[in-house]
Amino acid sequence: MITIALLLVSTAPIYAQGDAKNGEKLFKANCTACHALDKQLVGPALGGVVARLKADQNLDTDWIHKWVKNNKELRASGDKYANEVFEKFNKTEMQLFPNLQDKDIDDILEYTTNPPPPEPDPVATPVDGAAAGASGEDSSTSKIILVSLLAIAGLLIALMFKIGQLVKLQQSEELTAANARNAKSFAQIYEKYSVVGKIILGALAVFAFYGFWNWLMWIGVYKGYKPEQPIYFSHNIHAGVNKIDCQLCHSSAKYGKVSEIPSMNVCMNCHKMIPEYKGKYLEPGKDRDFYTGEIKKIYEATGWDEASQSYTGKTKPVQWTRIHNMPDFVYFNHAQHVVAGEQAIISSHNKKNPDNKIDVVCKACHGKIDTMNVVQMANDFTMGWCIECHRTTEVDMTNGYNQAYFSGLHDKLKKQYPSSNGKITVSAIGGMECGKCHY
Ligand code: HEC
Ligand code: HEC
Ligand code: HEC
Ligand code: HEC
Ligand code: HEC
Ligand code: HEC
């Protein structure tokens, strides 16, 4: 009797067939682009979806399995609710997941039914990306320059004063006793200290040259560059708070040479259904009306009329300001880094920065974009920066791409670069050759 009661209590959750931990992982990887547990995004909120569909539609998990694997097929079969919900969401196509196993879907449903307690509120730690790291170095360099300029100015004033005295001496008919002493002592001082003076002047000249050189080297470096954009689009709110995957918007990063800013259609996939900002997160000095106003700009740009839920045909293209932009003579390919180099870059970054680990390859170069409200350049994107990483990142000789290209070469490379202790860095596979990066 007691055991039965205990059993009943412990199985009290409506649905307990899966592993919520694994479910959470799968949900984040496959579903968060369009679903949240507690609010509608592109698709409906999925918290408690099993109970809801059972209560409202008398559908069981079998139906959900079919829907998740291939909702298109389910609709085509004439299923009533599948077609209803599709209509309700303006015929937005949900992605098909033919590769998810029944067990995976059960795990996801376990997670949507019994999610673990939420993580601490992101509002508590609003960070603005790379700002801290970026400014430190600059301010110490400018301090050095400031001090040296002050020193030079001081020396010039002292010299003018002395010269002024000398000129006065020449013009006066008689040297007063005091002035005579003064002139004599100046001559003596000059003789005594001329060597020291020359050394000081020499040092200052070297200093000034160093400053000039540094200034030259900084031309074309825009680390921290952070322009204002026509729509206030926050990566923190999208990629951070709402955990939208980078590649949902920058999908060509994986396949193409460039990574591209998403078109307005991509925004509308979600914002047809999200006409206003209701999030908890607010930046200091901004309110929900501000964000909502920015969302309306998407409608203005695409000619979307909210009242009639249709496009008017009057569009107004948005001109995003390009932030990262290599000179034309440089060849940079995202796919090479995001696909072939992904594991090598992530593990090398995490080894070098144990306190600042990354999970997404993009962050190795672009910094923690998912914490930035306004994108800024997190690195200086110079030739030295590319080379430094190629010199120190071990390539993953086991990935398919490299295996195909470099099979048999591995041992030869090891012999050729004995100083690297058998480690093969990007430089060994051609990452230092001028022609690889320059047309
Ligand atoms: C590309 C966007 C997208 C992705 C990714 C996505 N969905 Fe959906 N989902 C939708 C939309 C939109 C709907 C509403 C129906 C429609 O328009 O087809 C929906 C509906 C559903 C429904 C029906 C819910 C209800 O209340 O009727 C379930 C269940 C569901 N999705 C589960 C999932 C799961 C599980 C995943 C991840 C494995 C997932 N979806 C990934 C867009 C998406
Ligand atoms: C919801 C869509 C969306 C998501 C998700 C998203 N981005 Fe963006 N991204 C944009 C838009 C729009 C811009 C242009 C406006 C701007 O600069 O803020 C942009 C700009 C950028 C830029 C600057 C491009 C330039 O002009 O040089 C980088 C770098 C970038 N994103 C990286 C990322 C990374 C890394 C992630 C994932 C952590 C990510 N983005 C997630 C939409 C998105
Ligand atoms: C995958 C879904 C998705 C896509 C794609 C998407 N957004 Fe959003 N957007 C959201 C969500 C979720 C919010 C937060 C809504 C809330 O919390 O009430 C949001 C909020 C916003 C806001 C208000 C907050 C802020 O960032 O200033 C703006 C503006 C915005 N989106 C612009 C865009 C633009 C421009 C694009 C296309 C480049 C875009 N969104 C693409 C889901 C999306
Ligand atoms: C190895 C460093 C590196 C990695 C990793 C990387 N990027 Fe980039 N990214 C760059 C460089 C360099 C540029 C400038 C390219 C140019 O101007 O031709 C750039 C430019 C961009 C741009 C501006 C548009 C363009 O294509 O020029 C976006 C958006 C962007 N990256 C997004 C991403 C996303 C999303 C990821 C992860 C999927 C990513 N990047 C991974 C180095 C990197
Ligand atoms: C965070 C580290 C990192 C940075 C920064 C970086 N790269 Fe790379 N790069 C790699 C890795 C890792 C590979 C090797 C990928 C592979 O396994 O094939 C690579 C490969 C390459 C290759 C192909 C080399 C070959 O022999 O096939 C080129 C070209 C290249 N990078 C250009 C650039 C340029 C241009 C920049 C600067 C704008 C840059 N990279 C910045 C890590 C980086
Ligand atoms: C890993 C990629 C990479 C390799 C290898 C490389 N470069 Fe570059 N180089 C760059 C990038 C990126 C820039 C642009 C830097 C900028 O815009 O600040 C550049 C800029 C230059 C410039 C113009 C400098 C300036 O300030 O405008 C010259 C000249 C140059 N490289 C010559 C070479 C030579 C010679 C080699 C071979 C020894 C070489 N590069 C190898 C990536 C590379």
TrEMBL record:
TM annotation in the entry: 144-161, 199-221
Name by which UniProt lists this protein: Cytochrome c2
Biased composition (Pro residues): 114-123
Entry annotated with the keyword Heme: yes
Domain of life, source organism: Bacteria
Segments for region (Disordered): 109-137
A Pfam family recorded for this sequence: Cytochrom_C
Domain Cytochrome c span(s) in chain numbering: 18-116
Keyword terms of this UniProt record: Heme, Iron, Membrane, Metal-binding, Transmembrane, Transmembrane helix
SUPFAM superfamilies: Cytochrome c, Multiheme cytochromes
GO MF annotation terms: electron transfer activity; heme binding; metal ion binding
Comp. bias regions, Low complexity: 124-137
Residues of the signal peptide: none
InterPro entries noted in UniProt: Cyt_c-like_dom, Cyt_c-like_dom_sf, Multihaem_cyt_sf
